[in-house]
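Each record in this resource describes a single protein on a pair of labelled lines. With that in mind, the following record should read easily:

===
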Amino acid sequence: LPPLACLACLCALVSSVAMTSVTAAQTLGSARGGGGSVNCACSLQPSLVATGGDDGGVRLWDLRQGRAVRGFRLPGGDEVLGLAYAEAGEGGRLYASVGRRVVEWDTSAGPLIASEPRSQWLVAEDEINAVSVVCNGAKLVTVDDSGAVRALALSQPDQCKLLGRHQNVSSSCSVNPANDGEVLTGGMDCAAVHWNVAREECNFRFALGAAVGSQAGQILNPPFVSDVSIHSTGQRFVTGMGDGAIIVLDLIRREAILREEIHSCAVASVTYMPGSHVVVTGAADRTVRVVDTRPESTGKSGKKGKRKAKVLPSAKVLGQLGVDGKVNVVTALDAERFLVGTTSTKATVFAVRL
């Protein structure tokens, strides 16, 4: 994995709503011999990020140097669709979902390009779309194309617990930052499900088709849940929807509090910026939006004696930008930077200042 030059370009976008600038701070290209989409990413340290792609490889990028510093690849491996990281002793463990397996890599030491994982487990009956580390690093949660949501105890990896199922493909999983024993999963059944992994039970099922008034069996732009992200307080979460909208829901009151049509096609990925109500979204329309998800009031009131149909408040779009390729993943690196992975062979780190 040879060094890659950092491509710095200024593309500040100032919204008419708020003084928000978005700057392309760094572009991480495919190393020689690599190729395919960037499907997933996760932050290991403030200056170290991992990406996984269609070529079956995982790369570690040093953002200070602007280059790939290590690589992991299984011979003949399938595409990598999910990544998660956990601290372990003096180093760390990187977990990748590859086909129906979860592969564990040691990031603390080893060759420049590693092909022998520390461990790997056959977990699912279908392709795994996301993996998360929960319960202080003691368990993994996976979601797959069959709709299954499973918990794998790392102390007993041969015992994989089926927590439950979505009625269709389960596409995403997000850990509660305020309680890492809880996760949210989203699926093509137009639902988000809140799970207590520590107790191995389902807390609540959010039927999001009902939240936006969609008809059962809607074929055109169905509100399936492509991605979910939980706010740092653990009290609300955002979903990226198949109809191009995002919905913010209150996890405590179990109700939708905001909906905004953001993209012209299905939202692929959403992420909360840490410590704020700002959400970054990406879609197949090759655009990324930066959105303030605090409900926006129009300042207008209805006439007395008349009741209007309930309409969810909207959000403020603070900025938008075009990217090279359809967006597969957006992930927050810290309070001011996020990474965008697309169907091109590169990922870009953006800085956002509010």
In short: Residues 208-211 form the longest helix (4 residues). DSSP finds one helix and 29 strands in the chain.
